Amino acid sequence: MFKALKEVFIAIPLGLYTTMKNFFRKPVTIQYPKIKPPMYPRYRGLHFLERYDHDGSERCVCCGLCAAACPADCIYMEGAENEKGERYAKIYEINELRCIFCGYCEEACPEEAIFLGKEYEFSTDQRDKFIYTKDDLLVPWPRKKPSPVKFIRKTKRPDVY
């Protein structure tokens, strides 16, 4: 019994020492909704479809390479042509529930139209809202801030027939 009391009297000051040692340290918690932690440079978040800077037209020509490169088969698209004969995506959908955020769609796109952004706050209470359409993915025009993407080709390809 005396041995148990001795252990208790040693354990209590030892625990208080640990508490007091950490009590005056700077907290490591981040006040999340107010302060957002910086994401790593290679983080891949929510997809977005880019536009050309000079006229705001969409870059996607619905070639289907992003859908073919996707291992999760989460991209669905249907192409169409406008009055000038230029191809565009009439329907472009990404099922974010199936997406594994691998970035293959971004690498496969020859027009530099689809990118994975840094957005990580996309939650909802309905499964249907995780199917993002072209309207959800296109960058708003006119832009409020410059694009974070460093494009290789800034303008459209010339019409060569």
Structure in words:
The chain is 22% helix and 15% strand. The chain has helices at residues 2-23, 65-69, 104-108, 134-137; strands spanning 47-49, 75-81, 87-95, 114-116, 131-132. It is built from 4 helices and 5 strands, in the order αβαββαββα. It starts with a helix and ends in a 24-residue tail after the last helix. Strand 2 (75-81) and strand 3 form a beta hairpin. It has a domain at 47-137: Alpha-Beta Plaits, CATH 3.30.70.3270. The protein is elongated. The longest helix is centred in the first third of the chain and has 22 residues, at 2-23. With 161 residues, it is of the alpha+beta class. The strands form 2 sheets. The chain has a 3-stranded antiparallel sheet.
Q: Which secondary-structure class do the elements indicate?
A: alpha+beta
Q: Regarding quaternary structure, how should these chains be classified?
A: single chain
Fraction in helix: 10-25%
Could you give the order of the helices and strands? HEHEEHEEH
Tell me which CATH architecture of the domain at 47-137 applies here.
Answer: 2-Layer Sandwich
For the biggest β-sheet, the strand order reads 2-3-5
Distance N to C terminus: 97 Å
CATH topological fold name of the domain at 47-137: Alpha-Beta Plaits
CATH class of the domain at 47-137: Alpha Beta
**Computed CA radius of gyration, to the nearest angstrom:** 26 Å
The low-pLDDT segments are none
